[in-house]
């Protein structure tokens, strides 16, 4: 069977499909559990979560499924950002805040220097089966700590060199994120523009240069994409956008609606929301901020500065100022339950294996 | 068999593989004939050719193969470019000309307003089996003229909308060119940046929206890419970079060498050489011209202005100033004969069909 391979066996999942650990509230406990219950691997996007909320979410998931699931965390970054840069960015953001009746810019606090360690501790304590990482290579200590507990560690790469770095640092598997992918670019070794490699080109080249299993991501939305990725040499796929529009997803209803009616030409890679390049549907916020793209405070500072704008825009029904993360396959998005999305994919691949080939 | 489908039957080829009609001397008669003799479709890149040279090449190909082959031509563009723009561009190009001992900038003549019609006439007169187009939709008259002669007409699209336009205008098939592709972007309906869609996302969405066969292009370098593209719904693939490094290719030896030793992060989309965005390996010419990217004379004027620089750089062994077109899969490039490249692909796919699936 197409879905039986060493990765599926290792992770104890029926289908080699991983739901991307999207941060920002998309990955509700219901979504993660529904994906895992359907035979794929659900994943909590805990990037921005404090340890308490993370633990709460993990426990909710455990109440909804007995199947394996994962948690995604971010490698911490502490950029040097000056007061002046922050003030300049706040000037550019003021018109949005005024329109939304947000009285003050959020305070940029020093990030909790131990957040990452605390997140890892929760994952260990809760014995989460899988931990995936974005934005870099996790510190050796964390990798050892997790592997000692038999927790599978998965890294993210956008180039072959980054995939090799993941293998060299002990990661068990690596996601190869093609340029089609929605949301944040995982690039951590060099400029993001050089690392905008299409999935069709990235996956086979990555597969040829590492021995750990490669998980394909970027533009994969249905059974065709899943089987194509396996043919390219991937041992599994990671799908984000396909699950954003699912019934169980916590994405704002306007975000879901916008994806469902968008076409592939409408997404763009922007740093306007977070200070880090990410693919989303072009809107007024992105267009207005485009001219300042190169001068914005680095991630995560810009992310903090736009936080209330994004949340208020969602509350006040203003999708033109929301971060509408989306990959390059929106025409293939569907409003279905996560379980249906997965069973549709499995049926589609079964069908291709039986008839077409 | 994986390679038997309506497109292969229609074109009377054994393998649904088309060698891209790359302009600029890559597609020697030897290459085109070798590809066709190996069971795929060779294609002469006649974009920049005058009718006499084109006819000569077609006749050479006919002497080397009895199998079907194609000719690729460009939809003509006549931009308004001012003397001032040309002078400015020549100022930026002067340092390269001085280094290469090129005494004067090439003269920018009015293009032959009837070149395209004359090219079509040659294709008709020589009864070339396939005619493909880049940079737009061919005029109705040309489509009718070719179809009347039972010459298959193939268009190029970089978005779903462009694919639909090709179908609506009577093209028999359409190449869906993903963002991974080397050489010129075929975008003609809107900005090229919006049309940088990865092959994994572009192909299934295009397939869902047109009834004519879709030919996948971009990042496809071996049997894995070919089979993946067919799984995505394409009826054939078009491969360019894979054939640039072939023994029979007319590409400059330094161009071939540079592809063979490059990695996926090294390509970039630039308008510096021709005034039209194209993907090639980053070098000093691209880097130096980057700051003027938005102010260059439009294609084909900039192409004319850099012509002697490119040809002299090739002669004088200066790859840093040559146009080193290359897709995002250079790690998969091989120095093999075209026939071996095709038989390797066929064997690889046969193997995947037998064992892996």
Automatic annotation (TrEMBL), chains A, B:
<comment type="similarity">
    <text>Belongs to the nitronate monooxygenase family. NMO class I subfamily.</text>
</comment>
<protein>
    <recommendedName>
        <fullName>Probable nitronate monooxygenase</fullName>
    </recommendedName>
</protein>
<dbReference type="Pfam" id="PF03060">
    <property type="entry name" value="NMO"/>
</dbReference>
<keyword id="KW-0216">Detoxification</keyword>
<keyword id="KW-0560">Oxidoreductase</keyword>
<keyword id="KW-0503">Monooxygenase</keyword>
<dbReference type="InterPro" id="IPR004136">
    <property type="entry name" value="NMO"/>
</dbReference>
<keyword id="KW-0285">Flavoprotein</keyword>
<comment type="function">
    <text>Nitronate monooxygenase that uses molecular oxygen to catalyze the oxidative denitrification of alkyl nitronates. Acts on propionate 3-nitronate (P3N), the presumed physiological substrate. Probably functions in the detoxification of P3N, a metabolic poison produced by plants and fungi as a defense mechanism.</text>
</comment>
<dbReference type="GO" id="GO:0018580">
    <property type="term" value="F:nitronate monooxygenase activity"/>
</dbReference>
<keyword id="KW-0288">FMN</keyword>
<dbReference type="InterPro" id="IPR013785">
    <property type="entry name" value="Aldolase_TIM"/>
</dbReference>
